[in-house]
Every structure is written in C-alpha cells, then in structure tokens.
Design brief:
The chain is mainly β. The protein has no helices and 13 strands. Strands 8, 9, 10, 11, 12 and 13 form a six-stranded antiparallel sheet that branches. It has a four-stranded antiparallel sheet with strand order 4-5-6-7, with no helix packed on it.
Length: 143
C-alpha cells in the first residue's frame, strides 16, 4: 500500500493458472489490473512497484521486476540464475534501490543484490554457501 493505493490479489478463476492483481486507489477507483504480474510492494515514493510473475511454482520467484506503479508496465526484470534459483522477497532500500536476496540452486549458494530502478545490478554482500532453507540474508520489512 502506498497512500491510498493498494494492490489486491484476486483468487484464480476456473481455467486460470494464476491469480490476477488489481491496483486500486481507494479514493478514486481502479488504476490497473494484470493477470501476468503480482505486486510485492510499492517504492517509498509510490511511483514504482516491485513485481513478480503472477504464476508461481515451487520455491521463490525465478525473477523480480520493477514496474511503473501508475500503469503496471514492467520496466525491467532481474533474473541472475535463470530457472536455476529464486528470490524469496525484496525490500526497498530507498526510492531508487531494491535489495534482494537470491538463491542459486545449482551452485547451492546465496547472494544479496542491490538493484537500482534504472536496472543496474550489483552484488551487495559475499556469496554464502548453503541450501535453500538457510536464508542468510533476510532484509528488514518495508517501513
């Protein structure tokens, strides 16, 4: 939620593989909806959204994206491990950066990434060996 704007995930309907997401301004009504992406959180200034694929299967999301919060248009995706890993979650560091832990199932290691809203990705901590239940990088909850 940001201000009076919320993201709601509707249950999947018969014949649908994934639930649909509605972004609604509680004061003004519907903003956009999508059955392709789901909103994890909004940036602190409310202009962007951290998104994932609407259909999830298994552990974590193989990719996360940054979308325009006003339209739902995905600006870019990050996917450092292809289908060989995932992201448990992400947290906004500030209005311009997201911090995301990721697990590489082939290498059996964790990495922490800092992603700018313009698409630059940098590793923000050392690689940590361990299985998918280790979670060495647990970002704080969004304020």
């Amino acid at each position: 939620m940001h201000g009076s704007v919320v993201a709601l995930k509707d249950p999947a309907q018969p014949g649908q593989e994934a639930p649909c997401t509605r972004v609604v301004d509680l004061e003004e009504g519907p903003v956009w909806n999508s059955c392709d992406i789901a909103v994890q959180s909004f940036s602190p200034d409310g202009t962007l959204a951290l998104v994932e694929d609407a259909y999830g299967s298994g552990w974590g999301d193989p990719r996360l994206g940054i979308a325009d919060a006003a339209t739902g248009e995905v600006l870019f995706w990050i996917n450092p491990h292809g289908e060989q890993g995932g992201f448990p979650t992400g947290v906004w560091e500030d209005a311009d950066h997201v911090v995301v832990p990721s697990f590489n199932s082939v290498g059996q290691n964790w990495r922490l990434f800092r992603v700018s809203t313009t698409g630059e990705v940098e590793q923000a901590g050392p690689s940590v060996d361990g299985d998918d239940m280790l979670f060495p990088y647990v970002p704080p909850a969004n304020p």
